[in-house]
């Protein structure tokens, strides 16, 4: 089965295109299943306004759009309704209630920020290895999430492979194995920066070699921010061949929250 569960919409302020355009592009690219997983909203305790995720007030429109497209194109593609979230300790009780009432099929865990984006910078720009490690391990201990998006994101700002980042990667992969967490091989880096990213950015060859040695499972994510990103067959085929060459189990789906 050809599937992608990492798909954004214009509601996050850094993606383009209409929701239906993503669906049509996925159908044209031969996908059997498409999951929308835009950056989920938080009900902050402060007056902070995020610039990279939808507002709580946008959620109902997002849900209505995805579910309408699910019905409209049911004979051509299976559409899943999800969100992408961080692990913010002070907000997890709120998140559980929000998810339970939202009718979501799944939640992706992405370690973009530690504690909250009100407090700490984006890990794609901040190379704090210890904070990254503590935050991602806490998220992998939480039962809300179906898989871990771009677990090697920290290589984007860190930019080199050394003993310090190796230790971080080993601990991430060991926790993933212990908790049976699927790790995402994220295609955005390949699409944006080309093959060289595999050594000094993400997806990172060193990370995936460690993941293979630890016996982790992988899933491939398009991380689409525009409809044309659904045409990812070159990158997807490369990722499948590479991960299988390492001996990694590559999954194409996972159990949904609603059992469907």
User: CATH superfamily, please?
Assistant: Metal-dependent hydrolases
Strand order of the largest sheet: 1-2-3-4-5-6-7-8
How would you spell out the order of helices and strands?
Answer: EHEHEHEHEHHEHHHEHE
The CATH class name reads Alpha Beta
What is the SS-derived class? alpha/beta
End-to-end Cα distance:
16 Å
- Average of the residue pLDDT scores: 97
**Number of E strands:** 8
Q: Number of helical segments?
A: 10
Low-pLDDT runs: none
Q: Sheet with the most strands?
A: 8 strands, parallel
Q: Tell me the β content.
A: 5-15%
Here the CATH topology equals TIM Barrel
* Coarse shape: globular
The portion of residues assigned to helices is 25-40%
Kindly provide the radius of gyration, computed on alpha-carbon positions and rounded to a whole number of angstroms. 17 Å
CATH architecture: Alpha-Beta Barrel
